[in-house]
Design a protein that fits this description.
This is SmpA / OmlA family protein. Keywords: Signal. The chain is built from 2 helices and 6 strands; from the N terminus they run βααβββββ. It has about 110 residues and is α+β, with helices and mostly antiparallel strands. The protein has a single domain, classed as Nuclear Transport Factor 2, Chain: A (Roll). A 6-stranded mixed beta sheet has the order 1-2-3-4-5-6, with helices on one face. A hairpin with an 8-residue loop joins strand 2 and strand 3. The two termini are about 20 Å apart.
Length: about 110
């Protein structure tokens, strides 16, 4: 079960770094931007990004166990979800709703 510690809505990419650092580590924002670039999704195609930091429920192991970026695209009703581990390695990318991105699974 996932425990959510914080979330932030960021409109686009530009200038979001300072406010974003208050909630999550910059590595998750950077990796999200890199993944969007890999998928050829332009900044103008993004309505918003919600970053969710996942934390451990107990005191064993590292505090942060990963993050999810929920990307709302202008062209569809749903999200592009980017799941990352604590080192910001992208574990999985998928879409929800009626969003379709070439090369990405849809649920």
């Amino acid at each position: 079960m996932k425990t959510v510690i914080g979330a932030l809505v960021v409109a686009g990419f530009a200038g979001s770094g300072a406010a974003f650092a208050n909630i999550t580590d910059d590595r998750f924002e950077q990796k999200t931007q890199e993944r969007l670039a890999e998928l050829d999704i332009a900044e103008s195609d993004v309505k918003s990004i919600r970053q969710v930091l996942l934390r451990r429920k107990n005191d064993r192991g590292p505090d942060i166990r990963g993050a999810e970026s929920w990307v709302r695209l202008n062209a569809c009703d749903g999200y592009l979800v980017i799941q990352m581990n604590r080192a910001a390695f992208v574990k999985q990318t998928y879409t929800t709703g009626n969003c379709a991105v070439p090369g990405v699974s849809s649920f």
